[in-house]
Amino acid sequence: MGSATALPVRAGVDIGGTFTDVALEVGGQIISTKVLTDHDSPDRAVVLALQQVTGRAGIDASDISMVIHGTTLVTNALIERRGARTAFITTEGFRDVIEMRNENRFEQYDLNIVLPRPLVDRAHRLTLSERMDSTGKVLKPLDPAEADALAAKIADGGYEAVAVGLMHAYANPTHERAMAAALAKACPDVVVSVSSAVSPQMREFERFNTVIANAYVQPMAKAYLGRLVDQLAAIGISCPVFLMHSGGGIISIETAMQFPVRLLESGPAGGAIYAANFALSHGLSKVVSFDMGGTTAKICLIEDGKPKTANRFEVARTYRFKKGSGMPVSTPVVEMVEIGAGGGSIAHVDNMGQIRVGPQSAGSEPGPACYQRGGIRPAVTDANLVLGKIDADNFAGGSIALSLANAEQALEADIGKPLGLDVAAAAFGTTEMVDENMANAARVHAVENGKDISQFALIAFGGGAPLHACRQAEKLGVRDIIVPPGAGVGSAIGFLRAPFSYEETRGAFFRLSSFDAERINQLLYEMQATAAEFVRQGVGDAQTETRITAFMRYRGQGWEIPVPIPAQQFKPDDVKLFKSEFETVYRGLFGRTIDDLDIEIANWSVVVTTPLPDVVKLDGQKPLREAASSRTRAFLDAQTRQLVDGPEVMRGNLAPGDFVNGPALIVEDETCTIVTSSFTAVAQADGALWLSSGQNKETSQ
């Protein structure tokens, strides 16, 4: 090649449990590829994918001007307990907080309930004789000699990382910083995380867990990111590398190395941004993003173009993905439900004689049985292949050869024989079960947020979602589906659409009955300055916007609700503004407000972000002409439960207004959209497919 392009070139890189996706943007055009994830060295798969996609684009790797990366590395390390040897230092009397958890039982009637084991065992949890109160007042000073002695003990203990979480450090971080200084002097090679920097919020259980998780994965994350930069440089990519964080924005690699806990949901967050962008352009105010990859399925509610966010997230759930059975961390995150339902999810028959799918996954190593890489247990991909929904000769653009015989053998052995079913019935039972799992997760997520899922449109992306989207919609009562262009690598494209942003959170308690505008202004000024500094690491002095959220509750309540507050200088009479904004949100959630109760603010959030470009609004494309098909293919139409001979349409050949009546298949390199008999797909001006049910097919022809 040898000639640099004059067009801006950016690469979005998403490492999943099964596939590593790369989306290359060259002057507004997207070129993408998928390769199997290399679990021994994830950076090798990134380099391979970038070499493939730059070759297809006809450019040199050195022409790339920015790499934006999302990864499941941090999440997987916590789930699989593959982190550093970590010590935890806390206030005397509180070493067992992370083991005692709280009074909630995630399985109320299970007498043999087993709580998740803490990341740091009790023998490695050490204490300091010091104490702050909730206002930051020193109740018991920290003895420097005690801090030095504890640091020496850490140095002799062979630890790779230390987490420091002292009581009420969010209100006054002085003691934590003193302990960190002693550690830096005694053991400079040990990574130190302090809760007042990682998660300065109220509630010690979540705060302690968060700082421990950050310390636990930090050595590995720093090593991986450093190795990735070196590998990219080796093929000529010396541009800046940025990371997608869990809250839906982009941060510098330096910030990611300091706070890797913010990368927990970095890949799925990119998918939510991707879906939100298409919701806005197509004028949809209520959508649910459906992201199904090789290992998991992620579902997120998006209203008015904004994914639902939270400041608390639960990772590594141990009891059937049940809420409360994992490790809660307090870090900004795009709120979604994630279940073990992907193409690699393994199917089996339980003791009750029922088909179960997931959460165990074959991943990329060994992969589903049809991958011919040593896997012998049936996965969802095997079932889809047997049912004709996947073309064995054109999977992942033909880069991965699939074996129908292997898939049939695995399904017959593990599902068919135990239940007395033929292979086709075993495959259909597997897909129906995974579809029901995902539909049920979407229903529960919507109900928990007070929403009616049938009033939402579905935006389907990820390699597996277009295969299952119509069946999901049928189960949920959803009438409209959008499959965006590049759906198979949706999260990677979402990275290219995300803003540079940083969210600073802090615990600071106020009651509206004693509203202190001056203190609030000072607090928010400090938080905004901190967040802006992190954003400047990525974009310099570019234009930014500020968003403020107060986490508020009625006095006596145990949990807060997020309340957006205008970014402005507050005056004493703005107490009315805070009260009005809180009551509006509270009434929207619960249908009423409570009279004669004081209102409290427990935590604060300040987001500094670069503004998103204006989205071009599109008029819905009406069906004009039936799309041409070069061949037909036999596959199972889940709506009628019949094997049909449906037309196979190449998505790349569709022009705006071309329509495809189901049952049919619309194929592309990264995925395949299954159009069941109850849906019609219409190609839109932006390359998206709009699938609608109940359309009069006679008038559309």
Tell me about this structure.
By secondary structure, the protein is an alpha/beta fold. The strands form 9 sheets. Strands 13, 14, 15, 20, 23, 24, 29, 32, 35 and 36 form a 10-stranded mixed beta sheet that branches. The protein is globular and about 80 Å long.
Give the SSE map.
Elements: E1 9-15, E2 19-26, E3 29-36, H1 42-57, E4 66-71, H2 73-80, E5 86-91, H3 97-100, E6 125-128, E7 131-132, E8 138-140, H4 144-156, E9 161-165, H5 174-186, E10 191-194, H6 195-198, H7 204-234, E11 241-244, E12 250-252, H8 253-258, H9 266-281, E13 286-292, E14 297-303, E15 306-307, E16 309-310, E17 313-315, E18 327-329, E19 333-334, E20 337-339, E21 345-349, E22 355-361, H10 380-386, H11 404-419, H12 423-448, E23 457-461, H13 465-476, E24 480-483, H14 490-497, E25 501-511, H15 517-539, E26 545-554, E27 561-565, H16 575-590, E28 599-609, E29 625-626, E30 631-637, E31 642-650, E32 658-661, E33 664-667, E34 672-675, E35 679-683, E36 689-693
| Total number of beta strands | 36
Portion in beta strands: 25-35%
Looking at how many chains there are and whether they match, the oligomeric state comes to single chain
Low-confidence stretches: 695-701
Annotation keywords:
alpha/beta; ten-stranded mixed sheet; six-stranded mixed sheet; 36 strands; 27% strand
In brief:
The protein has 701 residues and is an alpha/beta fold. It has 16 helices and 36 strands.
